[in-house]
What we know:
Helices cover 25% and strands 35% of the residues. The protein is α+β, with helices and mostly antiparallel strands. It is globular.
Amino acid sequence: MILRKLTISIMIAGLIIFGSSAQAASYQFGQLLAGNGPANPYFADLEITDNGGGDWTFTLSALDLNTIFGASSFIGALAVDGIKPTSVSTNAGGGVAAVSLQNGGGPTGIFDFRYDLINPHNDKLTGFESVTWHVGGLGSALLPSNGDLALHVQGIGTNGDSAWYVSPVPEPETYAMLLVGLGLVGFSLRRQKQN
């Protein structure tokens, strides 16, 4: 009886956690995909929230780009491997007045589309700045998985090189859910042995 109640509780908790995590995701960028930048710097965070009805909100926050990449560095685009939205609107901020949709993106255009942060070209997302934009027309598409997103960092070093970085590391919430699940399974087995 106790095991049955515990199993039902775990299933309900899992549905609550999984249901809420399916609506929002956090990404940390740092693994070099292509270009002339440092290999694994942690330099930006992206929060994506599925607001329902096909509307999503993106908030991109740059960390200390100057120390990592040089004084003239900035984030110019976010490339996405997935469904292209039909509309985009921007909360102006971080030196970015408008985020625009463009076809292709990433090194050699391997991603489906990109959100351009430098249109007009004086718009730039530099260190310790953030910008929020809203997109529509995605239906019930899944939030991107790690590796489906790449950031273009431009103005690296004295040569003004650029590099693309991906977000390959699972979110901390994923590890937390795994540890909680393993702990509950262990607790359940221990209780079963005691009875």
